[in-house]
Specification:
There is one protein chain. Helix content is 28%, strand content 22%. It is an alpha/beta fold and 267 residues long. It has one domain: Rossmann fold (3-Layer(aba) Sandwich), CATH 3.40.50. The protein has an 8-stranded mixed sheet with strand order 3-4-2-1-5-6-8-7, sandwiched between helices. It starts with a helix and ends with a strand. The model has no long low-confidence stretch (mean pLDDT 92).
């Protein structure tokens, strides 16, 4: 493998893996997120409510979101702001750590484990809303997963996605605080995958300005649970939207958005 073509953002590592390679990746990631600190519900805090409300949930017809699929939703915190509109929640979650959760804000919730190659075990056009926040970068075959989203969403439903668009370092080396295989999805590749999957972009917002993320980490500021700091973040990301290098090795490259937020519809 020519590692450089992946670090340059010309190819997405994992997206061309064989079935056996995908299964190995899936096993390595199965409990990895839970083991980073999400396993203990009493100590876990969700950090993105303001960001989700500002971009993901604003403008949605929530009255029609009866059946919702959460991809890798852990304890389901991302769904709590809209739970009052939902009649049924299904969470596709590989970890055993969250399987005991049977209700999110009183809404009946079923946890289902994915298979190793990421076929979604659901009927066509089964869901009104699919939410996948910070999960695709843990999955090898992103293109295939987006095709499955297209298959499982009803024609006027919505798909909400937020993912890093930076490499998150060199994944061939050990990285502190990250799972073994996670990597961002280069923005140009992300856009091409969405187009090939016959999904239309209703919203595309660059977010999570890298210096602010570092500040949040060391100061314990909850930036993306604060609506004013979230707006400030989005302004900075728009101003620096030209700076989308994938593998950032120089200081100036890190003054940039680190993630993208999408609201997608089926064409």
């Amino acid at each position: 493998m020519d590692k450089q073509e992946y670090l340059d953002g010309r190819k997405l590592i994992g997206d061309d893996y064989s079935e056996s390679e995908i299964k190995i990746w899936a096993e390595e990631e199965r409990e990895a997120y839970a083991n980073l600190g999400a396993r203990n519900k009493s100590e876990y805090k969700y950090k993105y409510h303001a960001l989700n409300k500002k971009i993901g949930f604003s403008g949605l017809n929530l009255e029609k979101c009866n059946r919702v699929l959460g991809i890798g939703s852990a304890w389901g915190d991302e769904l709590t702001p809209i739970a009052k509109y939902i009649k049924e929640i299904i969470v596709l979650e590989p970890s055993e750590a969250f399987a005991e959760n049977t209700s999110i804000m009183g809404v009946p919730t079923q946890y289902i484990k994915p298979n190793d190659v990421n076929y979604l075990p659901f009927d066509d056009e089964m869901f009104d809303l699919i939410i996948c926040l910070g999960v695709l970068h843990h999955i090898p075959n992103v293109s295939f997963m987006l095709q499955e989203f297209h298959r499982c969403i009803r024609p006027d439903g919505a798909i909400i996605i937020r993912e890093p668009i930076v490499s998150m370092g060199d994944w061939s080396k050990k990285r502190v605080g990250l799972t073994k295989n996670e990597r961002g999805i280069p923005l140009n590749i992300f856009r091409n995958i969405i187009s090939r999957c016959s999904l239309s972009i209703k919203k595309e917002k660059l977010c999570m300005f890298q210096p602010l993320r570092y500040l949040s980490k060391f100061s314990k500021m909850d930036i993306y649970n604060n609506k004013y700091l979230t707006v400030f973040d989005l302004i900075l990301c728009k101003f620096f939207s030209w700076n989308t290098n994938y593998h950032k090795t120089r200081v100036w490259q890190k003054f940039s958005p680190s993630s993208v937020y999408y609201v997608l519809h089926k064409k």
